[in-house]
Structures are given as structure tokens and as C-alpha cells.
TrEMBL record:
The keyword Repeat does not apply. Keywords: DNA replication, DNA-binding, DNA-directed RNA polymerase, Magnesium, Metal-binding, Nucleotidyltransferase, Primosome, Transcription, Transferase, Zinc, Zinc-finger. GO terms for molecular function: DNA binding; DNA-directed RNA polymerase activity; zinc ion binding. This is DNA primase. Monomer. Interacts with DnaB. GO terms for cellular component: cytoplasm; DNA-directed RNA polymerase complex; primosome complex. Residues 262-344 form the Toprim domain. Belongs to the DnaG primase family. It catalyses: ssDNA + n NTP = ssDNA/pppN(pN)n-1 hybrid + (n-1) diphosphate. It is an enzyme of class 2 (transferase). Contains an N-terminal zinc-binding domain, a central core domain that contains the primase activity, and a C-terminal DnaB-binding domain.
Amino acid sequence: MSLPPGFLDELQSRLSLSQVVGRKVMWDTRKSNQAKGDMWAPCPFHQEKTASFHVDDRKGFYYCFGCHAKGDAISFVRETENVDFIEAVKILATEAGMSVPERDPQAQQKADRRGQLVEVMEQAVKYFGLQLRSGAGAAARDYLKGRRLDEATQARFDLGFAPDGWQGLWDHLTSKGVAPEMILACGLAKESQKGGKPYDTFRNRIMFPIRDARGRCIAFGGRAMDPDNSAKYLNSPETEIFDKSHTLYNHAPAREAAGKGQPLIVAEGYMDVIALVAAGFGAAVAPLGTAVTEHQMQLLWRVAPEPVIMLDGDRAGLQAAYRVIDLALPLLEAGKSLRFALMPEGQDPDDLLRAEGAGAVQTRVEAAMPMVRLLWQRETEGRDFDSPERKAALERVCREKTGLIRDPSLRSYYDQELKDLRWQLFNPRRAAGGGTFTPRPRGGKWPPPEPARATTKSSLLVTAAGDTHLREAVILATLICCPEVMESFESQIERMECQDPDHARLRALILRHASAGADTLRAQIEDEMGTAPLEKLLALPHVALAPPVRYPGDTELASLTLSEELAKLMAQRGVQAEMHEAAEDMAGLADEAITWRLAQAAEARNKALRSQQEDKAEYELGENGAAIKRDEKEQFAALLGKISFSKQRR
């Protein structure tokens, strides 16, 4: 529909934006200046306690410094009322005392018909409500009373009752002058297959009016009173005014409650929603008898950035949650996700409220798990990963699922989170504290390192451990200076055991952030650990002499260095393992076998020491005191020649 030139300008000139917005927010009187039209309030589009939402009346625009929502009066009504452009214009025009120009005849006719159908539906709401309060509705009233729904709650949701007759509603509406075609078009009656009079769609059922985002009744849901009825719940068929995939039960009231800071809860059915609202959880909605659809997901995110999916605590409820994950993964964006609150086994939200009260539900909502955790649970629950093939299969399926996420930044965070969880699953001893990979506590600080024990300081293994420490330092520094090579060495770095707590933390951060590049990696290390550990590492003499540190960014040099240092580190660790095993086997006097093993370990240690002395002898001081290698003819001559030539050109 096209509007006449100047209509929108006239409309917005007649309205004060602060008046339009003021229906949805509480102004901060300390920051606002009403005389200048400079108004501030907590943002209605996201949950916050501070007033970061700014309205400039003179310019006619709003802007939130928190979530960056911005627009004019029309966009504000569209977002808060969940209506399209023309509907928003109509709402504002009514406030401004203006009439919206008529649409073209065909569009106007369609709009008029929709309005007429809604009027018929509202007449049906009144009829069902009267029947609930009549003698015919006695059993239905008893049922609702048994579900702890008082009269005020029943009235709040316009609950009703459809008597057990074939034409009760049909006769009532036709007697009021409603055309039979309109009753059929609303889905309130069906044509007889035997050529007789149409019969009511809903019979002997408790009736739940289903309303759109503007609060208009567009359909019904009916719960059977007969326990033997094959269809416990029955919804209206889809009509000109009802599309169940685009509709949420209790949408409009939930949107208003969520705007006031209540958590948006997605339950499974009508009774769950009504029970939650009656218990104080006003922002509760439900899909209409089917799994959540893509359109419903978008509706949820318009109301709140992180809805809580609260499903029944049985296998069917869990499977429904898994289906929601598959639907949501391709739709995720930064700031738009889901959390999951699973009920106790065999209970739905209504059961939990009746058994334990609102506090139990609040606890479940606050403890709702992020979607990535439920995804992990689905892929690992009840399975053993005791072979490389099974571990590889888990890694593959995790990558397949995260590959569905379109947002590259969000996808990388999901990849890293699942990688951390795989590490903990495959290395339970280390994850529990016996190893080196220690993810940073959520919202916490790293624990202080334990001081060395006196027995450790006097151990004969300290010298060998010192050699190991040096190689660890070179490996970590190489990766910090050239993280581009991380992918080729990731599995070896994951298995690398770091005895130094600072090394362990650096290693964990490198594994997490290497893919982001050298600058980001260093920034993350400094953010997590401060500047001191990194400065200390790079200032160590043997680290400063390492070629990748002297020439950062050279991937060939870094790869050669890592290959060499990891191989030597593995050899040293093998020596230490032999010595430890021999020491553990000793009891009383050493026998001949143990003496032989100690001799072999000593010889291996001597070889490792000679290798390290050869390493040290490889370096000499060049011009300007820079350390260079003496013997690099086979491995590094070409690389250093290239670097030297580049330096001469500069």
C-alpha cells in the first residue's frame, strides 16, 4: 500500500515520540529533561537496570547505547507491538486523530473480511465462556478447580466449554445472524459428509482461545473431557486468519511481561502456560501442539534474546528439545540463543508448580543450561569413546553441527567450547587436576600456583625437569610468535604435559586462541594472565635465542623448531618415566634387574644431556651481539640466507 506524499511526515509531526515510547518504559527522572525533549529510560528491547535508552523528541528518533536499537515512532510500534508497517501506521494514526487512506479495493476487501472473521471468533469466545459457567460446564469447572485454576485465572485467559452436542455453537451463531459461510471459514464447524447440517468442530472440550500478537482471537484449542477420546488436544484448522506455525499461545501478554524484565519461558502446552502465568511467570508462551517452527523462533527472539525452553521431563520432552536445537543452529546470531530448563523425570511445569511451588521453577530457570551443553549431551549421552575411531566420530559430528551456524564468529566459539568438552571427556584425569589442560573458571580467576615442596627441590630428577622446562618454554614462545603453525601441531600440543602452572595456562590459552592470530592471542594472554608471565617467558635467554622468536611470523622456521623441540621433549619425558618406574619398583635392596634399569636410564639421560650441550654449542654471537647458530647447513641455511638477504635489502 502506498501512502500519499507527506502523510507520514504529518503523522509524526502530530505525535510526541516520548508519548509513544512512554507507554512502554519508565523514564529516569534524574537523567531526563522533559522541557528539552531529552528523555532516558531502561531499554524496552533488552533487560537492563541502567537507563541507556535515549529519546530525542525534537529529532523524533530513539537510540539504545546498550543493544543499539534505533528508529522512529513507527519502528518503535512495529517492534514493541509485533505488527507490520501498515498496522503500526494505523495505531499511530488513531492516536493522532488521523484516518489512514483506504487501500486498493481488493486489499481493503480482504482486510474487511479478516475483521469480520475475527468478530465471529469473539462471539464464539463469549458463547464458550457462558457454557463454562452454565450447568453443562459443571464437570469442566471441577476439572479446572482440580488443576488449581481459580475463576480469576479462567477469566484472564477467557477459558470456556464446548458442550457435547453436534450443533450447539452453529445454532447459536446462525441465530445471531452470522452467515454459515463465515462460521465454516473460521474453522468453527465442518461440512457433513452425509449431506446434513454442518456440525461443530469442538464438542465436550474445555476451550482455550488463541490470540494473535494484537490480542485478537484467531483460533481455539480444545482439551477433551472424555479420557477415551483419541485426540486429547484439538486445535482449529488453519484458516484465512490462523497459521499455527506463525502463532504462539499467550504471545501478547508474554511480550509485555518480558519487556518488564521477566524471563521468556517456552512451555509445551496451554495448561503449562496458564499455570506458569498464575504462579507469577507472566512471560510464558507455547507452540500450538507441534514442534517449534522457524517463524515461531523468530517471534521468540523479537520478545527476548535468550528464551528458556522448558519441556517435560521425559524422553519425549528431551527429544523435543533436541529438535529445537537442530532448528535453531542455522538461525543463531550473536546475542540470539536459547537456554534449556529440563523438568524432573515424569513432570511438566504444571506438575512441578503443584508439587514444589514457584521457587522450584525459578531455580530451574536460573540454572537453565546453554544450548551448546545440551547439544554436547545429545552427542555423548550413553556412549563410550574408548577407541580412536569413536573419538574421531564424535569430533566429526561436532564439526557437522557447528558447521550449520552461519555466523562465523559464533561458530568459532561453538567449535572451541566443544573442543574443550572433548578434551575433558578424553582426558578425565587431567581435566580433574592430574594433567595440564585447565580451562579458566567461568567468571573466576586462576588459582595461585602451589609452592614447590622441599622433597621436590632436593630430588635427583630436578635437573632433567629443568631441561624439560626449557623446551616447553621454547615451544610455547614459538607458538605465540607464530600461531599460524598451530593446526599442524595441535594434537601434540594437547598431549604436552606442562609441570609449570604458568606454562599450563599459556598452553590452554594458545590452544583456545591461536586461530585468531598473533595479536589477538597476545591480547587474550595478557587479559587472562596479565603481562608478567608473557614478558618473563620471552625474556628467558634460551627463548630469546630461539630462531622463531628472533624472526616471528616465519612459518617454515617455526615448524622446524617445533618438530625438533617436541621430539627432544618426548625423549626426555621417556627418560624420566623410566627413572620413576624404576624408583617405584624398588623395595628394600635393589636387585640385579633394577640395577640394570637404572644404568640404562642413566645412559639415556647422559645422551639427552649431550644433546642439550650440542644445542648450546650450536649458538655463537654474531654482529651486534645477536645469537646465531653455528651449524645450520642442513636445516636452516637456506632460511637464514633468505632472512639475511631480506635484511640487506632493508
